[in-house]
Amino acid sequence: MNTILQILTLLGAVTLFLFGLNLLSNGLQKVAGDGMRRILAAMTSNPFTQILTGIGVTALIQSSTATTIMVVSFVNAGLLELGQAIGVIMGANIGTTITAWILAVFGFSFNMADFAFPLLLFGYILLQMKKNQKRHDTGEIIIGFSLFFIGFATLRSTAQGLLTADNLGFLVSWSNLGWWSILIYMIIGIVLTICFQSSAATMAITMTLITTGILDFRLATAIMMGGNIGATFAANIAATVGNVAAKRTAISHTLMNTVGVIFVLIIYPWFLQAIGWMVELFGLPNPNTADLTLSSGPEANAVQKSLLYSVCVMHTLFNVVITLIFVWFVPQFVKLLCRIFPSKTEEEEYRLLYISGGPLSTPELSLDEAKQEICNFSRICHKGFVHLRNAINETDPEKMDSRIAKLVYYEEITDKIEYEIASYLNEVSKGEITNASAKRIKSMYKIVGEMESLGDSGESISRILTRARSHNRKFDKDMIQRLNHMMDTMEAAYQAMADNLHAPYHQLKDINNAQKAEFEINACRDRLREEHINNIENPNYNYQTGVYYIDIVSELERMGDFIINVSEAVIEEGEN
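Now predict its structure.
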């Protein structure tokens, strides 16, 4: 019964460790959300900058998995190119080693649980300050940090009594099989990391096992190499619902880490020796030759530190080696990935490009993806307008049916896209969002609603054209010329809408371009309406044809209203 309780306590400690790490990571992402976007937006083609970005972001949010998934999502959203993403992922591999060093330096040298409980109280007080979002998020960070160390301290104390050679005899029996032992323990590392969805958890367990004497340095190294491969699993799952670029990005992480493991296995004896020499620089015993039978005293403490630091050095050196191998061959690596995942034929218009995978881990990043989808929506709306213009100018009765059918089709597309984006925004709003994000979501609802109305207007004009055909009415050359002039002014309005949508939401200062286009559309509408009224008295002017003509003019002006409403919603979003 006591053993069962110890096992449950151990599993609970791992759960608390992971929960604390997840809470810490989420809180840091919320606090650093805008900063991360600005960092990634400033990304250059310089591999050195990309690697530093990956290191910095991962160190900031304490999760290489979160960084990699974020990068995959950004590639999916068109915010990063594949070559840039590979550089960031290499940096993330190095950045994740910081967690190992924190555990080695603080987790074993001090009883962090003594400090964690007072921090829990302080964090809880901040967490209740919901009106002050920054303090609330800071409280979440402090609580996550505290639970992270409480879980690790409990894991460490429980493991000392439970993870012994008697209880883990099967592990001991697998340790003397030569190269097979290395492969078996690598598989254990892969499985542990996939199950926990965290290389940090695998690192914590490995450190605990190596300090209790269950593992030697050689086998601990094998587990960590397996953990590096297992850490790529989550990003590949996230990419399954993404586009081709996202899949290439996710598989690049797996290939890099796998090639790195193969390379290290080739030079394995020399690799272990190099780590031993580096640990000796700390003034500690070489882990390859240290006496592991010591149980107490200064020498035993030195051996324990040596083993802990050797794991950290191995983790860091391994990822640095991967980076040094691949940084020189990124262009070639990109070409290889493009061959593995070739681009498919052009996707159907109604297919979402950026948000099909569901919301990201933080609302702020999810809204950036939603913005990319809205920008794509504006492109589709403009294609619908091109078909509208073709229908108005069509003189061949046989081709008119297909032109009108296109307008009906695009109305259905706009309905579907508006529904999908609104549903996505609804899912995002269910999470913990800041006031600024809530206002931004409200603006996006308005934007997609106005865009959907553009599709409705296109269908309305298709019905006007159908009625004109049924009454054998055709627009003369002067009417077509005037309508084309009005549609020219609308082209400028569509361009202004697209420019304003693509602008960084916090940098757009005015919408003069959209206001100018709206003014010209209204002026054109007034002029054409006045000409129509004057022409009614002309006996050569067909009144019924004129009615259809002016109905189209009015509908085009309504479309201009929808377009300016989009830009107004964008500027409101930037004022949040």
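Residues 345-349 have pLDDT under 50 and may be disordered.
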